[in-house]
Amino acid sequence: MCIYGKVINFDDLHFRKCFSALDRMGKNLNQTAKAANQTGSIYREDIQLLSENISVINDLMDDIYLKIETLLDKVEKTKVLTMTEQINKAVEQLHKDGYM
Q: Is 11 exposed, middle or buried (0-12, 13-18, 19+ CB in 10 A)?
């Protein structure tokens, strides 16, 4: 991933888990819709399974959000350190040139 011109390596396991959960949820929803269309009713267990899948996805998305927030914090700190280094170099050069 590239943020602010910096390349950040991170484990995308949470993304893959989320996509997998979304895929399962989509399949379950299709099966439930097909059964509902054929029988005219929906089973309580099907609704419970969909609800559980939504809960899993919400948890995964919370984890992803926290990981992205952590990455952005690291990038921002790196960016600030880089700016500080540039300022220090400029001050050193001013000293060498006799302006300070």
A: exposed
Contacts of 72 (CB under 8 A, 6+ apart): 3
Q: What is the pTM of this model?
A: 0.53
Q: pLDDT band at 6, cuts 50/70/90?
A: low
Quote the CA–CA distance of 97 and 85 in Å, as a whole number.
18
**Residue range 38-47: average pLDDT?**
85
Element holding 83 (H helix, E strand): helix 44-96
Answer whether 59's CB lies under 8 Å from 53's CB: no
Contacts (Cβ under 8 Å, ≥6 apart) of 24: 53
Alpha carbon 4 to its chain centroid, in Å, reads: 16
